[in-house]
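Handout, section B. The chain below has 381 residues.
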Amino acid sequence: MTQIKQAMVDSSQVDSELISALNEAGIEYVVQDDVDTQKHYRAGKKNLVVVDKKGDALDTCATISDKYICCNVKVLKSVSNCPYDCSYCFLQNYLNDGNTKMVGNDKALIDEVKETCFKEPNRIFRIGTWELGDSLALERETGQAQRLINAFRDIPNAVLELKTKSDIVDPILACDHQQKTVVSWSLNANTIVEKQEHKTARLQERLQALKKVTDAGYLVGLHLDPMIYFEGWETDYESLVRQMIESTCSSQIAWISLGSLRFNPEMKKKIEMNFPASDITYTEMIRGDDGKMRYPKPLRMRMYRHVMDVLSAALGYDDLSPQTGFDKPLFYFCMERWDVWHDLLGSSPTSIQDLDYLFAKSLQARFFTDLPVPNPIDYGV
């Protein structure tokens, strides 16, 4: 069942495909150009506001930091806010307008993507729609992901990543994606899903959706991020890893990431205020080089090492390092320093640009052999 109750459509964004999607989802809509700003991020979760594209929509992931090895993914700001309600979500500390918004002008979004990609034809761009919202949570109401999938199919050097905590994949199963779209899941231990990831699809529902898109031939991404400490985490995360690998095909896994709970210091009070039953702020945390609170390194290392051991066994690979060959899913840490990479993998990318280059090498070698072999110079390595 949809959680959106009403849609407000800017008059310039009235489009037959959008209106058809809203009608099919049973969503009442009004054409309304002036929509009041919602001061609290929860206030606009049940209303969808369809707006025009204003300014640049394509950017680099906001979490990038030269103190950490980041993947340099590009983000397409096509949605803002989310109908789900995870206790650790950074949007509760970030959004100035709590309305759930979607850019209705798909052509303008795609034109900007094409312009950027065509300027650097020898570079492979990874572009996600998930920075400010969920890529598929509103797909029944908007059909936006289907239109983006069709558009990215025809951009030679771009790969679309749709990242979600939903199970809303039926609308995209029939798309002619030609493996130019990676459908990714943010996955967590079942205890965390049940206690912290409110209103999202349950773990088994996400895993069933993962199997559906695998069967439909999509490339998939698996993100165990943020890993969260709790009593009994070892068993729960071990079960998660085994189930997610069983639900897909390793030859279709584009990448796998690990990351741990982190947030800006001022967000601690907001989590405790918005989610009084949550205990995720109780564990000891330290302030990192990027100013965010995170678990001390020994705990992060213990959690990562345990999951990596299970993951290696489930995949049948002794070495997960992306620098040891491109015949396996690309494995990486999200927002970790070089020393964590070295301690756990024995090596690390030399820079943010180097990791971006390794992604391109992996994609070309495994899936896009018709594209030129990436040159490190094109990635600033």
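Note. The two ends are 47 Å apart (CA to CA). Compare this with the example in section A.
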